[in-house]
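Extended Data, panel c. Modelled sequence:
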Amino acid sequence: MDPTGAEPASDRPQPPEAAAPVSCAHCRATAATPPLTWSLAVEDGTRHYLCDTCARTRLRGIEGRLDPAWW
């Protein structure tokens, strides 16, 4: 943080790219924009989307990676 208490711009969440096509990181399904039912993970600054079917299939693994503070 700077002396004014504001977060540096690099630490702020960035909005998704406007109207950028996305693809599922597992099955490669595509969509014109990220549907609300898709899951988004950010790993090393890179966005990874999972379609709703793949996200449901991998739900236990996704939950297992959450910080204990979520529970």
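The mean pLDDT is 81. This feature is highlighted in the accompanying rendering.
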